[in-house]
Write the structure tokens for this entry.
Amino acid sequence: MAFEILGTGRLQPIDLKLALQELSTLPDLQNRLDEAEKSGQPNFHDFTDLEMMKYFLYKRRHLNQANDRTLATVREYERELVLFIEQLLSHSAEIDLDVTYIIEGSLFKSLQSRHLRRYQEWLATKSPYVLKKGSYSPATLERKTTIIKAFFTFLHDVGYIKEAIHKGLRIASVRKDDRPNRDLGPLDVVTLLNTFRDLEHPVMFTIVHVLTTTGIRNEEFCTLQVKNLKVDGILGGYYLEVLGKGNKLRNVPLKEKVVSSIRMFRHARGLLPIEQAKPEEPLFATNTGRAYSP
């Protein structure tokens, strides 16, 4: 099968990923939508599958761009959609992708509810990951289903596809009991800190110390810059200005011992003291001087 989104043959996932991340065409997509509205044409009437994916991922929803999806969220959606397309085509026989004819050169317009349902069931029971490593966790299946459903809901809402085929997906919500308990108890934390202190490993000691005393998320930790460590001019001491989910800022107070750990971390890494460092450099850096990844 050949689809417009795939060009003249099967497009490897990396090619599709690069095409989606080519953002220079975004203004043109919006201009074409405006022109369609002006001329009375249906919205997206001349869009390709690739352009629909790009618009879904990167379209502006809020006047204040800071309130839109974070780049991390966009990349997560992008990874799942690219994987979805690659697996549909690579395993079409196993999934029973019985597409009888291609509508307007579009993969998405040619799919029906049964195809999404079959893909979802194949993903959970017979996909290469499952056969090699075992079942996906309920939370992972929920996330994958949510992203695919959101995309096909969008395609239907804007009129790019005629049928609400996302309704064919089975519910993949996670019960509270299905979520693994990854919480560290107080004794676990003390054991970790004592272990890294005995090993004279200030880097790991500080990472554990900061994460467990502040409760910030891994991603929040990784994106902290020197300028995010601020002096509390009223109460004294320090606090972290953290950019969290939904681009919401919050202030997290720090105990004196935690600030001492941060200074110890930077000294161990050969980084400049906080007072001398550039505001935009990572507060916590790897041995190459770069920010950590989550």
